[in-house]
Design a protein that fits this description.
heterodimer; A: 4 strands; B: alpha/beta; 3 domains; two-stranded antiparallel sheet
């Protein structure tokens, strides 16, 4: 599966899990370029950097509790492939 | 910068396969016969037809060539008034009440081309050649930041010394600049560039350093005219290499691209059609049209007889019309009017739907630093035609233009939120077409205008600006869209944070 399609699928699942819309963005300097997402975000002020190259923007702040860290690590793994 | 000599560098620039892959049935998207036929077939549009087309624009739908051609041939003054009004309404629907400001920075006038209309042409021996070092780029950017700007367009001649590597370093240098303001630090938050066409590999270098918008103007879409003003033995003489520059940019990942034509080279109606077809082909091949369209008019340039004597120079009245038709034809795109135009005309044409402009503009190489040294108020007299690409019509300071717009009820914005919030490329196009993006434009205009008033505005501008910002806040608190979720609460907190001195907050 192409990365964009994969990320769209993951974004939709994350959206259900976190009960908020999700964008995956590729980071280049100041630019967070939209790559894939679950829907349209209204409040784009919540940005979470996964690693140097990738970030998530969400309509609500994503909880950083431990079980969510597992999810973020899995995503980091996919993005590093 | 390239280690190759000029001739060897020129030889390796054009990649024919990076033109051919975008042709359809071996043809490019400018079918001159079809354009001329379309223009001829729509020379006498009916009133109701024109009004129906205007309604389509107001629905934020991109027009088809026949519709644009019809608008280009309207003769009745009353219909033009309706179109001017509609242009502003389209702009307000898509982008709300704000005008975004930027400053141009000319980094180099070294050029391998010999374009008949341009002061940088290599045969122009009167032009004083210069390319800025990174220290000089930094100084220029600091001078721009000191005015209150947050956005720049950086401009380069086409030359091995200002190749993609040089351009990438200038982008990084500009982004690195921080200059104290009344509160916190001023900085440039979005760097757009206007440069020569490049290969996909070269464009990826710009992508990797976080370029904003990549702008390449076709100058003229008319092929015979293009050949006559761009000698065939020069890089710029390759029409299709330039025509597909933005297609290559999209392929390299740069999904904010900008088109433009230099009005005055050929028939202005033809050029408007060319710009429309360019937007259509980008949409067709990538699903994304141009982020902005520019329409510089030819003005006197050093060593260029054409810049004064062309048969196709555009009158002020026709200039306002062509901008209006562009506004109505491509409702979602930004429209940039620059300081090439004099202040009264700029004020008039902004009101038919422009979205961006510049001020405190210096287009000489090293011009900002030199202006600071001179501290001269007689800025028009201090323009040096032999260091500039052309002569400016509006040399006013940013604060003066901001105040003028505020007096007109238009809020100045230095917003750079979109490209930092994932509202880019296909995503922002969708948001613009649905008139959603304009909601974010409204919020970020208030946030950045608050910063400007607190950090840079003169007392006179601040007085008028405070009234305008109160009006905008009142509107925001009433609009249902902003009641969604925690959006209004987030915005109000950000606004208060800025008042307390926090900077660079955006939605």
């Amino acid at each position: 599966m192409q990365l964009n399609s994969k990320l769209t699928k993951i974004a939709k699942e994350l959206s259900t899990h976190f009960d908020t819309e999700i964008y995956f963005c590729e980071i280049k300097g100041k630019r967070w370029s939209f790559v894939a997402g679950s829907g349209d975000i209204v409040n784009g002020s919540n940005r979470f950097q996964l690693n140097e190259k990738w970030g998530i923007i969400s309509d609500r702040e994503l909880s950083q509790r431990n079980d969510n860290q597992l999810i973020f690590n899995m995503i980091r793994g996919i993005l590093s492939d | 910068m390239s280690e190759l000599g000029v001739k060897d560098w020129v030889k390796q620039v054009v990649k024919q396969d990076e033109i051919d892959k975008y042709l359809i049935d071996g043809k490019d998207f400018i079918d001159e016969q079809a354009i001329n036929t379309t223009l001829t077939n729509n020379q006498k549009p009916e009133k109701q037809q024109v009004r129906d087309i205007i309604q389509k624009s107001l629905s934020i739908e991109r027009l088809e060539p026949d519709e644009t051609a019809a608008l280009l041939h309207v003769e009745e003054p009353e219909l033009w008034e309706e179109m001017y009004t509609a242009g502003l309404e389209v702009k307000r629907k898509v982008y709300d009440n704000r005008i975004v400001f930027f400053a141009p920075l000319y980094c180099s006038n070294l050029c391998v081309n010999n374009c008949a209309y341009c002061g940088f042409r290599y045969e122009n021996k009167e032009e004083k050649r210069r390319i800025l070092t990174m220290d000089e780029v930094r100084q220029e950017a600091e001078a721009v930041v000191s005015e209150g700007h947050k956005r720049m367009i950086v401009v380069y001649g086409e030359h091995p010394r200002s190749d993609a590597d040089y351009i990438a370093r200038t982008i990084e240098t500009v982004y690195s600049v921080k200059k104290p303001a009344r509160h916190g630090m001023g900085e440039i938050r979005r760097v757009n560039i206007n440069a020569a066409p490049m290969s996909v590999a070269e464009l990826k270098k710009l992508w990797n350093v976080g370029i904003g918008t990549y702008q390449v103007f076709q100058e003229t879409y008319h092929k015979e005219t293009y050949t006559s003003v761009h000698p065939s033995n020069t890089l710029k003489g390759n029409y299709r290499w330039r025509l597909y520059a933005l297609h290559r940019a999209m392929e390299a990942g740069i999904d904010d691209v900008a088109t433009g034509a230099l009005f005055g080279l050929y028939n202005w109606r033809f050029e408007v059609m060319g710009l429309l077809h360019h937007a259509i082909d980008l949409e067709r091949q990538f699903g994304i049209g141009p982020h902005t369209i520019s329409f510089p008019r030819m003005t006197p340039a050093s060593g260029s007889a054409l810049s004064i004597g062309s048969d196709y120079l555009v009158s002020d009245a026709d200039f306002k019309k062509l901008v209006t038709v562009l506004r109505l034809s491509v409702p979602y795109t930004g429209l940039i009017i620059t300081a090439r135009e004099n202040a009264p005309l700029k004020k008039e044409v902004i009101q038919v739907g422009c979205t961006q402009t510049d001020a405190s503009t210096k287009i000489g190489i090293g011009g900002y630093t030199e202006a600071l040294k001179e501290l001269s108020h007689l800025e028009r007299q201090n323009q040096e035609i032999d260091k500039q690409q052309f002569i400016l019509g509006d040399t006013r300071r940013l604060d003066d233009v901001v105040r003028e717009l505020a007096e007109m009820g238009m809020i100045t914005s230095f917003c750079t939120a979109g490209y930092r919030c994932g509202r880019t490329g296909e995503k922002i196009m969708g948001l613009l077409k649905s008139c959603t993006e304009g909601k974010f434009c409204k919020l970020n205009a208030v946030l950045t205008f608050r910063e400007y008033l607190d950090d840079y505005a003169s007392p006179e501008t601040k007085a008028i600006g405070e009234k305008l910002i109160e009006q905008e806040l009142a509107q925001i608190r009433e609009i249902p869209f902003f009641q969604k979720g925690s959006l209004l609460e987030t915005f109000e907190k950000m606004y208060q944070d800025i008042i307390k001195g926090k900077r660079d907050v955006y939605i």
